[in-house]
Automatic annotation (TrEMBL):
Keywords: Hydrolase, Membrane, Metal-binding, Metalloprotease, Protease, Transmembrane, Transmembrane helix, Zinc. Binds 1 zinc ion per subunit. Residues 168-344 form the Peptidase M48 domain. Coiled coil: none annotated. The gene is loiP. This is Metalloprotease LoiP. One of its GO terms (cellular component) is membrane. Gene3D superfamilies: Metalloproteases ('zincins'), catalytic domain. Its cofactor is Zn(2+). InterPro entries: DUF7092, Mito/Outer_Membr_Metalloprot, Peptidase_M48. It is an enzyme of class 3 (hydrolase). GO terms for molecular function: metal ion binding; metalloendopeptidase activity. Residues 9-87 form the DUF7092 domain. CDD domains: M48C_Oma1_like.
Length: 347
């Protein structure tokens, strides 16, 4: 029989089927057999081999639990002694590595840095890429389902009815249909009108193809061509499914679940994230660039001078008193820098 080190372990003994706790000592001989110490014999500690017991993994300096075959329990803080008398291979390499990492502050800090680094890379690179793949692979019906009801929610707490006349709305809707007809998009676009003193001059695109024009933007624009230039940009957000992608990114692990399992039903549960994103968040540099690219190409395709987009951007910047992108509404917000974007649309 293979021999091993012997030791006396001090701790607390819990008899089987009882909540009573008693100080106790157990002896482990060189053959791995457990005996109650002389002072603990009256407690009825059973005799058995170490291989018959269930021994908890070492986690830092927390007490170890040794469970006897009859269900009784011995708990000790003498972790080093337990490691000393464990059967060969009883601790396992993984537990040993974990204990070494936990034993030194430097190892803990390094491990924490690695974990946070992984989380950062996951959120900055993996989740956005996975969100793009998922959003573009889903059928248009899913984007429509996600967008349905969003405008109703926004009307409840953010938007007021538009003050524009029915004739003006019909005029702009007709222009949008002519603009969208040349897009070849799989979505059906409709133009809605709202107002809000807090939001002011702005426009939004919902995942289902609904475009929302705020009264403030209609009042600010010098001509309808500028408004249609903004609509071209918003159509770009719909075509590239930016609203759905942002909702997926905000959902975190949900996007990975959809990517791995193909559970489309989970995607339709993202609708609640859309209103908050539209009002509180901004598109990424990549998304704004994609929408700009689409707007520029589409405007050239339909014969709408790109300079109209540059002009409305300058008007919006002046109305908000901003020299950079901070505080800019919807399609002007974040990156790339406003001046760089304007230059792309100028002659």
């Amino acid at each position: 029989m293979t021999t091993q080190a012997s030791a006396v372990l001090k701790g607390i003994y819990y008899p089987a089927g009882s909540s009573r706790a008693e100080p106790a000592e157990i002896m482990v001989d060189t053959y791995g057999l457990i005996h109650p110490a002389v002072s603990s014999k009256h407690l009825g500690i059973p005799r058995c081999g170490m291989t018959e017991m269930k021994i908890s993994t070492r986690v830092g300096s927390t007490p170890r639990q040794l469970r006897f075959p009859d269900g009784s329990l011995f708990e000790t803080e003498d972790n080093d002694a337990v490691d000393q008398v464990l059967p060969p291979g009883g601790s396992g390499w993984f537990e040993g590595v974990i204990h070494k990492l936990e034993s030194k502050a430097r190892h803990v800090l390094i491990s924490a840095a690695v974990i946070f680094g992984f989380i950062y890379l996951f959120m900055v690179y993996v989740v956005p890429d996975a969100s793009r793949r998922v959003a573009m692979s889903l059928p248009p019906s899913v984007a429509v389902s996600v967008g349905e009801g969003t405008l109703d929610l926004l009307d409840d707490f953010a938007f007021d009815p538009s003050r524009l006349s029915a004739e003006r709305k019909a005029e702009l809707r007709q222009q949008l249909q002519e603009l969208a007809a040349a897009s070849g998009s799989e979505f059906t676009y409709r133009l809605e009108f709202r107002s809000s003193p807090e939001i002011g001059a702005n426009a939004f695109a919902l995942p289902d193809g609904t475009l929302v024009l705020m009264d403030g933007l209609e009042e600010l624009a010098e001509n309808d061509q500028q408004i249609m230039a903004v609509m071209s940009h918003e159509i770009g957000h719909v075509v590239h499914r930016h609203g759905l992608r942002q909702a997926l990114q905000r959902s975190g692990l949900s996007v990975m679940l959809i990517l791995v399992t193909g559970d489309i039903v989970s995607a339709t549960n993202l609708a609640a994230a859309i209103p908050a994103f539209l009002l509180e968040s901004h598109y990424s540099r990549e998304m704004e660039t994609e929408a700009d690219d689409y707007a520029l190409q589409h405007m050239q395709k339909v014969g709408l001078e790109p300079v109209h987009f540059a002009n409305i951007m300058r008007l919006l910047a002046a109305s908000h008193g901003q020299d950079d992108e901070d505080g800019m509404p919807g399609f002007l917000s974040t990156h790339p820098m406003m001046e760089e974007r304007i230059e792309r649309f100028e002659p």
